[in-house]
Amino acid sequence: MPFEVFDKRMTPLAKAPSVTIQKRGVISLNKAAHDLIGNAETVELLHDRDRQIMALRVTDDSSPHAYAVRKGSKRGPGQAIVSATAFTAHYGIDTTATRRWKPFVEDGMLCVDLTTEGTVITGNRTQAAAPADAVETTEALGDDAFTEVPAEDGSDRS
Q1: Which residues, in sequence order, are CB contacts of 140 under 8 Å at separation 6+?
Q2: Looking at 18-22, 83-87, 92-96, 137-141, which range is the least confident one?
Q3: Structure letter (DSSP) for residue 12
Q4: Could you tell me if 154 and 146 are in contact, meaning their C-beta atoms sit under 8 angstroms apart?
Q5: How far is CA 89 from CA 63, 70, 92, 94, 121, in A?
Q6: d(Cα 49, Cα 5) in Å, to the nearest integer?
Q7: How far apart are CA 153 and CA 149, in angstroms?
């Protein structure tokens, strides 16, 4: 029998909910986390300064504070994306590295405790730069884990 090339897209997405804040302040939810808020199409972003908890609350698109939740993949269920660069900058949320957290639900909101460090995530391009024991690669997340990851030197290696 000949060798078969492994296609990482054949592996199922993680069933545990996860929220990732990317380096540019983009928030991504895996399918399980998006399910926790009813697959909302629009959310409001909230922050509890005292507890250092960020939250996504379902709202309708008529809300003046609504953020669209975009699909991260056109090929089926996967990541849901919220552009939150201004939010992360305003509240001083660390975006020096892409990090993933296990969210929890409180009062119907999807919450992330920012007092915990989160798991550092790196793409294949930067994997060698981070300590192996503190890093999880995007291969475990599937092809649609991130929207765009430019090369750090500014070149286009896609």
Answers
A1: 14
A2: 137-141
A3: P
A4: no
A5: 22, 20, 5, 8, 20
A6: 48
A7: 12
Q: Any idea which residue has 């054949």 for tokens?
A: 10
Average pLDDT over residues 127-142: 41
Residue 19 backbone phi and psi in degrees, to 5: -125, 130
Residues recorded for the chain:
158
Give the pair of three-digit tokens for residue 124: 């294949």
> Among residues 115, 95, 103, 120, which one has the least CA distance to residue 48?
115
Pairing of strands 109-113, 53-58: antiparallel
Sheet holding 42-48, edge to edge: 67-68, 42-48, 53-58, 109-113, 104-106
CA distance 106 to 126: 35
Taking only the tens place, the pLDDT of each residue in 19-69 is: 999 999 999 999 999 999 999 999 999 999 999 999 999 999 999 999 999
* Neighbouring residues of 107: CB distance < 8 A, sequence distance ≥ 6: none
**Three-state DSSP class for 122?**
strand
Give residues with Cβ within 8 angstroms of 148, minimum separation 6.
none
pTM of the model: 0.69
Quick one: DSSP state of residue 90? H
